[in-house]
Amino acid sequence: MINKNIIENIVWQINKGGKKSPFLFLGKNSDLVNSDVKNLWLELLKYFEIPSNYLYIFEDNGEKIKIKDIAQFVEFSNSKPPYKFQIFLIENISRFTISAWNSLLKFFEEPDVSNIILLTNESESWVLDTILSRVQTINLWWQSKIKKDEFLYSLINNYITKKDTEILSYYFRNKLEKEEYINLLENLIIYSKENLIFIEYLEEINEDINAIKQNNVNAKYIVDKWLMKI
Fold first, then answer.
1. Is 0.70 topped by the overall pTM?
2. Per residue in 10-32, pLDDT tens?
3. Residues 136 and 183 reside in one and the same domain
């Protein structure tokens, strides 16, 4: 099930209008991710009173995606729909050949206002950096692995939105256990995903969490770094 806050943020972006960067949904179970993303956007079409046939799906058949096949699929994007938007869902984008990727760069760079592009994959591995730089990444597997701590989440929110420095006092002045520092970083991930901010930092934050767990690095130093960075 996709997080309610992610859904609300997507609806806000649609209502705001203008061009939207493609959404890349990541999850370890590709069948489950594809199903969840498809069902979410069918519900959004219903919410905006748009027929379900305006969700075009390039399904994962296990074969490599070639230029000819994907060109035929995106051809529909050249026709403006009689509704607020239409959706193009491409499943398991790691199947792309390099030439197929390159043929779609303009499709990703300059999506029409009425076209919403959805991509799914198990991870960012095997996805070109030129694509990653053009998408809004939503890691669905983080939703189930990490639990929200309302106290920490509130500290993060107040620090970012209200410039409240209570979080600095809490982490700079107190001697805390390693798990407490990890908990803050995990909640920073949750906050970033739910509000679609600091997306470019998520992989690095996750790497730092793993470093704290596995390599016994200085957890306080890592947390200090991120509090100053955000």
1. no
2. 888 898 888 888 999 988 788 88
3. no
